[in-house]
UniProtKB/TrEMBL annotation:
Superkingdom field: Bacteria
Species in which this protein is naturally found: Flavobacterium panici
CDD domains: HTH_XRE (cd00093)
Transmembrane segments annotated in the record for this chain: none
Domain HTH cro/C1-type residues, every copy: 14-67
InterPro entries: Cro/C1-type_HTH, Lambda_DNA-bd_dom_sf
GO molecular function: DNA binding
Stated name of the protein: Helix-turn-helix transcriptional regulator
Record key words, sorted: DNA-binding
Amino acid sequence: MSTETRPRNIGRNISRIRELRGMKQGALADAIGTSQQTISSIETSETVDFEKLVQIAKALGVTVEAIENFTEESVFNFFNNFYDNSSSQGNSFNQGMYATFNPLDKVVELYERLVQAEKEKVEYLEKLLKK
């Protein structure tokens, strides 16, 4: 087993952050004044020109460092820390307020509803095909 670390894939990080922000490639392209095909090419690249990276970071609302150091684990840590900290007492931001839901539960609920909607579409289309 090797202790060598894999180089970070900046393009993949951009893609994941863009997806997490709910942004399409075309919207990101418009925000930085380029084409969707260019964004697609950037997202498959291991490295990105620094000036372009600065533009992309600004459009995504994150720092260049956030893109460079992005990991899936960091997203889960953020949500876990957010949930843990939002139910704590005594800080000036949420005095006496408690979180009533886990954000990850809401994401799971959304996906379950989307899957159900897709199943209903498939059933409807199968009925149409049988007629």
